[in-house]
Write a structure and sequence with these properties.
2-enoyl-CoA Hydratase, Chain A, domain 1, 2 domains, alpha/beta, globular, four-stranded mixed sheet
């Protein structure tokens, strides 16, 4: 598929996905959503790719959210089953996804970042859910993910005021994992991705799936049911499950195969 609104690069088992509409601060419209749906489908289905990084083209914006000018001009709206950017409603991908936020992350852009497992933000990054200022609401997951990730009162303070939050405050609130110098968001995300790929991808997928499923039920039910989760079963049946203890006993780095 020819990509018009995004770019994809592979660095070993790491997929780098760049939102590429810099002329509109990487804001997204319908065609971009459907393109990104396919991009993330391909990442999820590729056994050679273990971690994804999402970032924005240029040095000003990660993603300014919904392309309001496109919408105001009568452009069609909507996205595929994966949600905004093919990601915000994607609940079946157990591979880690990292947001490398290199500038503005507004509205849907912030919702993309919140849908990722980690957020690495440059010092010039800015986050907000400003939809109420234009008569909208953050219905691509922001109204649900933000309270779950930073607590109700803190989230209400951002959502009801639509105020902008710096990378530093995002770190203090708890939704940013690390703040890096301007221009180094992608490098920082790659560093985190490299650390993740040193672990068994089967274990990482089992861990992510267990966390996600466990948070939807009581602690007691989560612990009782976790060994029946598909990714946990796949981990136990994998070659990596044998290789890890063997490499440890032989005092050598493990050779993960991801199956």
């Amino acid at each position: 598929m020819e990509l018009k609104f995004s770019k994809v690069e592979h660095k070993g088992p790491i997929t780098i996905i760049t939102l590429s509409r810099p002329e509109v601060y990487n804001a997204l419209h319908t065609d971009a959503h459907f393109e990104l749906q396919k991009v993330f489908d391909d990442f999820a289905a590729d056994p050679a790719q273990w971690v994804a990084i999402v970032t924005g083209a240029g040095d000003k914006a990660f993603c300014a959210g919904n392309d309001l000018k496109w919408q105001a001009a009568g452009g069609k709206r909507g996205w595929d089953k994966g949600g905004f950017a093919g990601l915000t409603a994607r609940f079946d991908c157990d591979k880690p996804i990292i947001a490398a936020v290199n500038g503005v992350a507004m509205g849907g852009g912030f919702e993309i970042a919140l849908a990722c497992d980690l957020i690495i933000a440059s010092e010039n990054a800015t986050f907000a859910l400003p939809e109420p200022r234009v008569g909208l609401a953050a219905l691509a997951g922001g109204l649900h993910r933000l309270p779950r990730q930073i607590g109700l009162k803190r989230a209400m303070g951002m959502i009801l005021t639509a105020r902008h939050v710096s990378a530093k405050e995002g770190f203090e609130l708890g939704f940013v994992n690390e703040v890096v110098p301007q221009g180094e968001a992608l490098a920082g995300a790659l560093r985190w991705a490299d650390m993740i790929t040193k672990n068994s991808p089967m274990s990482i997928r089992a861990s992510k799936q267990t966390i996600r499923k466990g948070l939807a039920v009581s602690l007691e039910q989560a612990i009782e049911e976790q060994r029946e989760y598909p990714a946990v079963k796949a981990m136990v049946a994998s070659q990596d499950y044998i290789e890890g203890p063997k490499a440890f006993s032989e005092k050598r780095p493990p050779k993960w195969v991801g199956k």
